[in-house]
Amino acid sequence: MDFGYSPRASELQDRMRSFMDEHVFPAEAVYDRQLAEGDDPHALPPVMAELKEKARAEGLWNLFMAHGDWGAGLSNLEYAPLMELAGRSIIGPEVFNCSAPDTGNMELLALYGTPEQRERWLRPLLDAEIRSCFAMTEPEVASSDARNIRTRITRDGDTYVVNGRKWYTSGILDPDCRLIILMGKTDPEAPTYRQQSMLLVPRNTPGITILRDLPMFGYSDRLGHGDVLFENVRVPVANILGGEGQGFALAQGRLGPGRMHYAMRAIGFAERALRLMCERVTERTAFGGPLADQGVVREWIARSRIEIEQVRLLVLKSAWLMDTVGNAAARMEVAAIKVAALEVAHKVVDRAVQAHGAAGVSDDTVLGRLYAITRALRIADGPDEVHLRTVARQELAPYKKKTDPTTGAA
């Protein structure tokens, strides 16, 4: 087994590491201040616009995109460590135009969009001229099971009419949001996994009402998490993505690489938390010596390092499998990393909070925000239980007895 990165991946890691140290980490406090002082809590702070310009000028741009001629053409395995580095800062992925939900939406457009759809939406997203959001989760049903979705997409002549309610529609409150990719049912009578479709809905279409901005554990996100009502929203039939009945398949294709991105970003969170914990315990004195001399603190640090290294290898294996045998064949590993990476990240952040004492639950460090994010992400993009169900089902498959359909005998 070769655990080395390709020369290109190693070179990009060095460049991104330097960019993070020189530009992104120093800009975090500026970003928060500009956001707090601005008239619109969802508007892009000037410092982020500056960071994006620098990242693009240095070729650290759209690195996630592996399709067509639109991105850097990196494999999942090459991109994974870059997402970890960007993930060490909450604002990192956006700097490089590699943040959700745009990444998944851009991949959908690249893979399934018509030439006209790509020209109208994909190109401006790649250039960061606009932002987008993804409307799937609904407040009235368990949306981790896409079969439950109630939002209706009904054809009426040359248009589709959308009626329904979505929530935690991340990104919709950004003033630059121009596109909603919406998942709804076009044919409730079709076979189970052919009922859903995806529709490209311009943000300014009449009939879209944002009812409220939803926080995560009290934290409000700049992009916003909208509770959104769609009432008789009309869009042209040409705005269907991939064809009627393709929604479920498109959603599954979108989630494979996306879960790897989540997992590597979570490892970045964990690395940031571990660094803060080590800095804190070597600087603080209690009971006659540095906190770092306490046995329990050393155990926290040791276990954190071991767990991070373990889960990183699992994520890299998943990325390698997606590259070599495809997303479908790597389904169990992709499900596993969504659970494992967020569990480890949340555990390491929790230890770092404990090591900081009162400071850990304040806004004086990034730990409180990381604690909320790592907990919330164990629900977002499918709760842990859904992914554990996938892993268990595949693990049990070889043990199921095959019966003769004519006699019922094993």
UniProtKB/TrEMBL annotation:
Cofactor: FAD
Pfam families registered for this protein in UniProt: Acyl-CoA_dh_1, Acyl-CoA_dh_M, Acyl-CoA_dh_N
All residue ranges annotated as the Acyl-CoA dehydrogenase/oxidase C-terminal domain in the record: 245-394
This protein's record includes keyword DNA-binding: no
UniProt keyword Electron transport present: no
Residue ranges occupied by any Acyl-CoA dehydrogenase/oxidase N-terminal domain in the UniProt entry: 9-128
UniProtKB keywords: FAD, Flavoprotein, Oxidoreductase
Residue intervals of the Acyl-CoA oxidase/dehydrogenase middle domain: 133-233
Subunit field text: Homodimer.
Family, similarity comment: Belongs to the acyl-CoA dehydrogenase family.
The protein's name in its UniProt record: Acyl-CoA dehydrogenase family protein
Taxonomic classification: Bacteria, Bacillati, Actinomycetota, Actinomycetes, Kitasatosporales
